[in-house]
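Teaching note: in complex prediction, the entire set of molecules is handled at once rather than each chain in isolation. The prompt given to students was simply: 'Predict the structure of this complex.' The entities are:
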Amino acid sequence: MRNLVVFLARNYFFLLFLLLEVLSLYFLVQRNYFQHARAVSASHAFTGTLFEWRTQFVEYLDLKEQNKHLAEKLAYTLTADSAAWMMYTSRTTPVIDTVFKQRFEFLAALVVDNTVSRRNNYLIINRGRLQGAREDMGVISPDGIVGIIVNVSDNFSLVMSVLHKDSKISASIKQDGTFGQLRWNGKNYREATLLDLPTHAKLNRGDTLVTSGLGDAFPAGIPVGTVLGFETKPGDKTFTVDIQLTTDFRKLRHVLIIKNLMREEIGLLREKIKVDD
Amino acid sequence: MINEVIRHFIRFVLLVLAQGLILKNVEPGNFMNPFLYILFLIQLPFEAPAWLVLLLSFILGYSVDTFYQTVGMHMAACTFIGWVRPRLLRFLAPRDGYEFGSQPTMQDMGRVWFLTYATIIIVLHHLALFYLEMFSFREFFSTFIRVLISSAATLLLVVVTQFLFYRTKEAT
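The expected output is the structure of the full assembly:
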């Protein structure tokens, strides 16, 4: 017993170090669990408020460009809207729409914090649980995809950016329809890679890539990027495609959260797979 | 003594806020992520007890983690520095030990000593931090370049603070 006390007294510094270091590493390894924990979302609520103050402070700096960009998008959207179109035939039949049912809803949000130069980048946006944001919802900008919500507090959401080593989004070639997995190699915030694209896909430089609609987070057809180049290793049955992302993450300000109104229904089906297995 | 504690506390708060609200979003290049907040650990007094430095490193790491939306990453890297620092100070000690009342600043300890000391701490901290962020050696070289570029940026900022906040001793 006395020996133990002497040992502890002599090595207390190293033991304290070991304790704290192991604790930190435990947090780090368990990050997926902690990222969804209440304690973490409380700390996001705190830093989120600080980030929002900062954003209000620096927002006016590029207000002009942001407004111009939004106005252009608005003009485009209004043109596509049915109200801008004239009925071409004189015969009108009122119908209750039983063919289409709304599947996605969009919620506007403002980016209050964002990085692009780290290996794993996150955004904080100013919509949270009270405004209807939930974990695993997709986030897009007027230009293309942005990321997926990993944690929500009352008024803020933490978004895992596409610029993250764990981000895996299904994207397809618009003309062809074959899909692969979008990953980021950490080098340039304007470029990403598409993996696992089968070699039978018809691929050209400059082809457009869009979200494939697989998974619950994004509807099909949201812009992702354009093909810069592609290569395949001999004997490999997949392409590795270099992509220019359409979203400029450095200029992100206004984004949209995507609510999938049929997520629960799909989730129920998914559970059936687990039961059957 | 109390004054000293308050000074270090204010430095802690200012550095964490500067890191979390300003430096984090100033992104001059793809691989450049300076972490000036480590200056707090660099400037703790020589006489500070080792266990206190270790605990402060842990708390510093936690505070920065909350701003970076990470869990445990800065904590682990800082705790590591808290453990390295006393060893490094012993290794770098002048022959007669540190003069009483002197601070680990460029002003008190001279350029060569301070640059050696700061560089070792910064590079070790950044090595731990960036490899923990990647959590694998898969992108070994690009992570290493990230460490080098960011360390250089951090060192530059640390040296700038030395010139800004500590006037060089007047020759008397």
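Point out the following to students. The mean pLDDT of chain B is 90. Chain B touches chain A through 40 residues (CB under 8 Å).
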